[in-house]
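> example.struct
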């Protein structure tokens, strides 16, 4: 009999038995199914014997005493698996590394990522010659993550390892912040079509304007900073839809949310923070088109204006508050003025609504 039916790779298992009639000093071989002798031992005076083996793979053994052969005993050898889950940041890639012993070059390791106790993604990682493996997961939602790695093949019992928990963090960010979380924020905003340039690791006034536009669309407090609520909203955002699904390019201004959309073939392609007319000098709702343009400053200091309703224009302005504050125009931040001017060709349709 065996002291264990399954052992870890590198471990040993004890084997014991009895010959009959009892006799001491009798040689007993421990033999596998292929006939190879793994070890030998001698019986005690009462005919009992004991041996120890350290197989490298699953094995079936029996004891041989002269012409007598014992019943088979099967021993499983469990692969040793290690796994490590790297830093977990929402919208980033989490790196998973691990090892398997014994190494089986080219074999696959099953890797599962869980969030809040539920599986969310699976990968098949290829094992290297030294037994190492690596894979990545994109972290799409906030939560608490763990990773599980498992390996089995015909020669070894399934071995598993788990690492974690690792939770996503929600750092507060604002103008002046820098680092990888700023980069992840900016990439996500661009992915969601919020107008932003110079995507890097620096939170500047342009990042602030994009965050403000996002907050407006999400119906959140209209400030330009990032908190835990913004991170969560970025993972599951409200996605604006264009009012018009006509072919080609047009511009829409949502006065309720105080944002401007560029739209192509019915899909919103860019979203930006604006300020429309205050109640005493309102921006009119309706469907208009760009009738004239001016590169540079107008006589009233409108920067790169594109006129769409008489003297009402989309233009750059030094102060673009979070609410309707203009004299009837659609104010955009200076850094966006030339860009939207370049898109708003004569004849471009402009749809304004609440």
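> example.seq
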């Amino acid at each position: 009999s065996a002291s264990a039916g399954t052992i870890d790779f590198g471990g040993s298992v004890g084997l014991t038995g009895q010959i009959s009639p009892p006799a001491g000093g009798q040689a007993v071989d421990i033999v596998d199914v292929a006939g190879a002798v793994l070890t030998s031992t001698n019986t005690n005076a009462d005919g009992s014997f004991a041996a120890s083996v350290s197989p490298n793979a699953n094995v079936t053994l029996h004891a041989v005493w002269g012409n007598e052969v014992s019943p088979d005993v099967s021993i499983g050898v469990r692969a040793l698996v290690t796994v490590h889950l790297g830093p977990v940041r929402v919208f980033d890639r989490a790196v998973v590394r691990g090892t398997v012993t014994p190494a089986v070059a080219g074999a696959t390791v099953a890797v599962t990522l869980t969030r809040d106790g539920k599986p969310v993604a699976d990968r098949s990682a290829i094992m290297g010659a030294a037994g190492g493996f690596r894979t990545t997961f994109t972290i799409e939602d906030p939560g608490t993550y763990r990773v599980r790695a498992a390996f089995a093949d015909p020669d070894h019992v399934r071995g598993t390892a788990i690492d974690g928990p690792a939770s996503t963090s929600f750092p507060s960010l604002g103008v002046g912040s820098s680092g990888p979380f700023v980069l992840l924020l900016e990439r996500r905003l661009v992915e969601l079509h919020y107008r932003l340039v110079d995507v890097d690791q620096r939170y500047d006034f342009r990042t602030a304007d994009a965050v403000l536009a996002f907050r407006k669309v999400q119906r959140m407090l209209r400030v330009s900073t990032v908190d835990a609520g913004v991170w969560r909203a970025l993972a599951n955002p409200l996605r604006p839809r264009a009012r018009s699904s006509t072919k080609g390019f047009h511009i829409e201004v949502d006065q309720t949310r105080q944002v401007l959309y560029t739209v192509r073939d019915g899909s919103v392609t860019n979203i930006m923070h604006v300020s429309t007319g205050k109640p005493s000098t309102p921006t009119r709702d309706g469907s208009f088109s760009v009738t004239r343009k001016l590169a540079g400053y107008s006589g009233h200091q409108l920067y790169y204006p594109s006129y769409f309703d008489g003297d009402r224009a989309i233009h750059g302005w030094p102060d673009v508050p979070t609410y309707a504050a203009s004299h009837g125009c659609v104010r955009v931040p200076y850094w966006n003025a030339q860009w939207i001017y370049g898109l708003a060709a004569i004849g471009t349709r402009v749809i304004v609504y609440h």
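> remarks
The chain has four domains: 6-77, 79-167, 180-235, 249-353.
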